Amino acid sequence: MGAAKLSAKILFIVNPGSGNHQMNYSELIIDHYKATNQEVRIFELPKNCSLDKIKEHIEHSEADRVIAVGGDGTLKLVAECLQGRNIPIGIIPAGSANGMAKELGIPLELEAALQLATNGKAKKIHAIKVNGELCIHLADIGFNAYIIKRFDHLPQRGMLGYARAAWQALWSHHKMDVEIEIKGQQIKTQAAMVVIANATSYGTGVKINPEGDLTDDLFEVILVKKYTVLEILKVKFTELPFNPEKIELFHTKDLCIKTRHKVHFQVDGEYQGKVNRVEAKILPAAIQIITP
User: In this structure, which CATH number among 3.30.190.20, 3.40.50.1820, 2.60.200.40, 3.40.50.300 belongs to the domain 133-283?
Assistant: First the structure.
């Protein structure tokens, strides 16, 4: 692992609203670098911060590395600011689920994550443009997006809150009539959810996309015809393939999904509202991420 030069400037973009609010990440980061001569700046995201404001801070800092301190939503904001640029992005996992950090093997422990952010090497990964939004982890319509909508309104965050939202959703979410256009093929079916997958797993640990690769030039589409807890658990705990009667997987560079009625839609854990059309295309080598 090549060390970052000591003169490198590091900008930490901290989302104080991430995770469980029990840690003051800005203070802990300052403490970590106190005994070093590393040049560090911190920008705490105000509520509803615009991309232009974040870009302004990045330009002003003249940073050699920009580190997202938060969950997948915070990482998405930073990635949107640096897409196509030659500035590595680091991750300090501080969200509720930290799906992308787990995907890339980023340490969840703060000191180890800071060491990696300072000294780790960057690799290029692709992203997906989904209805104009940058997706670096997972986007979907249907069941999971509905869970996220419910989760956002629960006072209790973390895995227990997510489980509670999922349990409620199981009893109240209905199947969707979908039409998927992929590689010139049209698929008309009913589905519990359709996942547009850059990564392999949700932050909860469920591996929804066992064939995912962040460095190839394709993304995956997972058509979940029938949501069964047993099917998802089978994928999580065994090497058995999906049951094609319940879950189908496709590789593609672009796709279009239409639904008869408006359906719940999320990108990287952020609820986007209801839509009846989703268009997605691959963005090859879109961002540089610091990884172990």
Answer: 2.60.200.40
Q: How far apart are CA 159 and CA 164, in angstroms?
A: 9
Angle at 127 between CA 138 and CA 2, to 5 degrees: 110
Name the fold adopted by 9-119: Rossmann fold (3.40.50)
Distance CA 28, CA 37 (A): 16
Determine phi and psi for 10, rounding to 5 degrees: -115, 125
CA distance 102 to 177: 33
Q: Give residues with Cβ within 8 angstroms of 148, minimum separation 6.
A: 165, 264, 266, 269, 270, 271
Quick: pLDDT tens for 194-231: 999 999 988 777 788 989 999 999 999 999 887 665 55
Nearest to 18 by CA among 114, 99, 124, 137: 99
Amino acid making up residue 31:
D
Nearest to 280 by CA among 171, 140, 142: 140
Q: Quote the strand ranges of 89-184, DSSP E.
A: 89-93, 121-130, 133-135, 138-142, 176-182
CA distance from start to end of the chain: 8
pTM of the model: 0.83
Task: Give 99-127 pLDDT, tens digit per residue.
Answer: 899 999 999 999 999 999 999 999 999 99
Domain boundaries, given as residue ranges, for the chain: 9-119, 133-283
Report the C-alpha gap between 25 and 14 in whole angstroms.
Answer: 7
